[in-house]
Amino acid sequence: GRVPGAGRPRGLGGRPRAKPAATMGSLVMLQGQCKRDPDAYREEFELQLAHYRSRAAVLALQPSAPHPELAELATFMAHCSGAYPAELSALPEELMGMLDKHAGAMESELRRTLAKAVILLRNKGRLEAAEALPLFFRMFRLGDKHLRTLLFRHIIADIRGINAKQRQDAVNRQLQAFLFSTMQQPDEGAVKRSLAVLIELYRRNVWTDERSVNVIASAVQHKSTRVCVAALNFFMGVGMTDDGEDSEDEDEDDEDAQPGAKRKKGNRLSKSELYKAFHTGTQASRRKKQKKLERAVKSAARSERIESGEALSSMGVSALELLRDPHTFAEKLFRRLQGSRDKFETKMLMVQVVSRTIAVHRLVLEPFYTFIARYLQPQQREVTLLLTAAAEACHDNVPPDAIEPVLRQVVNAFVHDRSRPEAMGVGLKTVHALCTRCPLVMTEDLLRDLTAYKKDKDKGVRMASRSLIGLFRELAPGLLEKRDRGRGHDKTRTLSAFGEAKFAEGVAGAELLAEDERRRALGLPGLDESSDDEDLGESSDEEGDAASGGDDSDADGWESASDEEGVEGAEDDGGDWHDVDEDSSDESGDSDTDGEDEDDEDQEPEATPAAAKSRPSADPQSLRSLKKAAAAKAKAKAADRRKAAPSATRARWSRRSIPSYAALPRRRGRRPAPSPQQEQSVLYCGRGAFAPSAI
């Protein structure tokens, strides 16, 4: 028989060596040992290196055949490249050569494993970013979506890592030169991935320079609709997905997907998942489930943001501000819009980007207004977005004659008697937005016709019409009818002519400086010092009023009338109604004021709230407690007496005691007219007799 172990190569100590075709577990163990002690395991490493090269030669002969051992050996070599730099100096070129030549023919799993090995070498510094980037962009052309996602995320993370500590301008120039050259290629996939990288780096504040934005703007004129839509979405603030695909594009079929597998539509979270994440399993498993739940919530929120088409984003506006030639950009895009046969959504994006560019840079593009006026109809699809774009494109530099077709079309199509109330409200609001940006477009006759809807039966129409009245009360009251101008309007206020510019003739507030110098020359305190003293006095007065508890009037606007004893009279009389003449009320008010000013030290202090009111108290807290107790007692007595008294004999309201919000009662018929005797006297209510809710 055969001796066990015969024919096997002997290692250190005479032990038989393992087979070269080792499993992944043994390679992982050997990988760790080689990293810890490279010299002791150099012989084992050289054996695996020879085995790797033999498998690489087999791949060159049979690229489409499965090669599971090659994938394991390539990962092992990439991890050991730092321990044996001399032996593996040519490893990056070998792996990149295999991917460049046979990536399209080899299996997807082997292709992704080799790509991960190249990424590992790049992270270890064994490969430059400028060397790996062209290979990754060529691999973007493959139909493997998982591979594209892996490469896209690595490119973004790699460039961010390069500029993490400080900006590497030399490396950035090399990478930007490659990406900009890729944007000029006819291949749609490469252009789209390059555009996705530029947009993502701008979004992450890595490449936010003017050159990157203008290269993205050049993609708007690309012949491919997908590339154009991606660039338009960037200027509207809508980003891309994590794999570089446009948010509006349909998901491409992955070649590795199983035939029976179904894609999950949306990010829906069931109640059972929420319960398991917080109530079942160990603490570590719950934490893992909760993190997974947070990622799902973020993904769902991001999907909703993309689907809703968030246009008002600071990213899009700031990018438009960096355009070198915005007028040429808007003209070319508008020219493409006029002859476009794309989908309606694509045309809407073009309209919105042109409108926003006009608004940001205050351009004058007169054909745009006549173009958009043709589509302003109530039955038009997404008419609200069109109305928003039309209003956004208006500003002071546009001639009123150019905006007039838009205003006329909105009024004729939306604001008429046979239109629905919703359409009329939208039309009037659009007119308000147009007049806010360019008030010269409005005429006097048209304005009076539109303000006639201020009494329409629909609330939305009424409010929209009244908002138009309020706008022109501030801009030009003379255009309104006399009854709509409001009281105290400025009759001399008119609209400035088109192109008229107003310049300041001096510095606002300069006369205050001269006044301050004059006061200081006379030995008086300056304006800033006097204002500080006045503020201090006002604050001290307010503190005194707060400390006194507000004796003269309550917080709800009622006047508390009492005799010269103040609250003492309210206690004695039980909080009844008092008929007091206007003269006597004024005298009582004056006497109260005089009583507050008097300070007689010889007078014995009385233990009544009235005496406490007549002169300052040394203990504000005790005085406040006495007043609160007296007011509560008077309020309780008044409530009991009011319940016992019949309703016919109750005192009527007085004009001086009614608060402003109770001046117009809801049912006037229930309040009879006062008699002549009641008109001669003014009725006051006791402290706290009624609450505002009783009105």
Break the fold down into its secondary structure elements and pairings:
Blueprint: H1 24-36, H2 42-61, H3 68-79, H4 91-102, H5 108-123, H6 129-139, H7 145-162, H8 169-183, H9 188-203, H10 210-218, H11 225-235, H12 271-279, H13 283-308, H14 314-321, H15 326-338, H16 344-361, H17 366-373, H18 383-392, H19 400-414, H20 421-437, H21 444-451, H22 459-475, H23 510-521, H24 527-548, H25 567-573, E1 578-580, H26 582-597, H27 609-614, H28 620-644, H29 676-680, E2 682-684
Notes on the protein architecture:
The structure is a single chain. The protein is mostly helical and 695 residues long. 57% of the residues lie in helices and 1% in strands. The protein contains 29 helices and two strands. The chain has a two-stranded antiparallel sheet with strand order 1-2. Helix 2 crosses helix 3 and helix 8 runs antiparallel to helix 9. It is elongated and about 100 Å long. The N terminus and C terminus are likely disordered.
List the defining traits of the structure above.
695 residues; mainly alpha; two-stranded antiparallel sheet; elongated; disordered C terminus
Strand neighbour order, sheet with most strands: 1-2
Distance between the first and last residues' Cα: 116 Å
**Number of DSSP strand runs:** 2
| Rg from Cα | 42 Å
Q: Largest sheet, if any?
A: 2 strands, antiparallel
Unreliable sequence segments: 1-23, 246-266, 535-540, 542-618, 647-669, 679-695
Helix content: 55-70%
Average of pLDDT: 76
Strand-residue proportion: under 5%
Structural class: mainly alpha
Task: Figure out the total of helices.
Answer: 29
Instruction: Give the CA-based shape.
Output: elongated
